[in-house]
Amino acid sequence: MKIIAVSVSEQKGVPKKNVPEGLLIEDFGLKGDAHGGPGHRQLSLLAVESIRKMQDQGLKVRPGSFAENITTEGVVLPDLPVGTRMALGAEAMVEVTQIGKVCHDKCAIYRLAGDCVMPREGIFVRILKGGRVRPGDPIEILSR
């Protein structure tokens, strides 16, 4: 289980750009990302396996295309119960707060890709302990 990509954007509802590393800030989210702030959806995660399903349908998508902050590998994210705690990298700790989301209107991602897996397979977490995260960093499930 590991981090494949860390992605940020300055506005909501658009694909995010991949960055070499990110700083998770306790009770805020990812530094420099539009979704940062208090609340229960401080950071979004989506599995690369979900992105590959969309690629297999012929869509030109990549990690960050679905506006997720952290792209994971080897974790079935929607199966993690709310309240699950995970370590991301060497320092950060997060807690699952929401599985999927309601997509009220078709965002730029849906219009570009023709579908969006984020509402079905993405999850949201809050940052319990901050720290740096990079592609290749391990993900550890601490408690369910």
Describe the structure.
The mean pLDDT is 90. The chain is 13% helix and 36% strand. The longest helix is centred in the middle third of the chain and has 9 residues, at 48-56. By secondary structure, the chain is mainly β. It has an eight-stranded mixed sheet. A three-stranded antiparallel sheet has the order 4-3-10, with no helix packed on it.
- So what's the overall shape? globular
Per DSSP, what share of the residues sits in E-state strands of 2 or more residues?
35-45%
Low-confidence stretches: none
Integer average pLDDT: 90
Radius of gyration: 14 Å
Largest sheet: 8 strands, mixed
The first-to-last residue Cα distance is 16 Å
Percent of residues in helices: 10-25%
**Strand order within the widest beta sheet:** 2-1-6-5-9-8-7-11
Return the string of H and E elements. EEEEEHEEEHHEEE
Helices, by number, come to: 3
Helical/strand content category: mainly beta
Give a short overview:
Helices cover 13% and strands 36% of the residues. With 144 residues, it is mainly β.
Summary keywords:
three-stranded antiparallel beta sheet; globular; 144 residues; mainly beta; 36% strand; eight-stranded mixed beta sheet
Task: Give the topology.
Layout: E1 2-8, E2 17-19, E3 22-25, E4 29-30, E5 43-47, H1 48-56, E6 70-73, E7 85-88, E8 92-99, H2 108-113, H3 118-121, E9 123-129, E10 131-133, E11 139-143
Parallel strand pairs: 5-6
Antiparallel strand pairs: 1-2, 1-6, 3-4, 3-10, 5-9, 7-8, 7-11, 8-9
